[in-house]
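Tutorial handout. Part one gives the primary structure; part two gives the three-dimensional structure as tokens.
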Amino acid sequence: MTEQKAIYEEVSALLVKLFEVDPQEIKPEARLYEDLELDSIDAVDMIVHLQKKTGKKIKPEEFKAVRTVQDVVDAVERLLNEA
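Part two.
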């Protein structure tokens, strides 16, 4: 399994567990706010959980540009690849 795929699986599981998102609705292009109906507090919760999982600090500006599930995966992957 590629790192990208593993991160995607983790983010998907988080969306289902924390926010009760229907797994059928989770696609890389799904928009967090419009399609999955998350709000800004949900986004903060997701960041906190991802920080615990990765053990890395996520910069708020990294997540300001995040709009889709794929954006989250890309941001986490960048974070994990930082030295």
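Part three, for discussion. DSSP finds four helices and no strands in the chain. Residues 36 and 83 are 32 Å apart (CA to CA).
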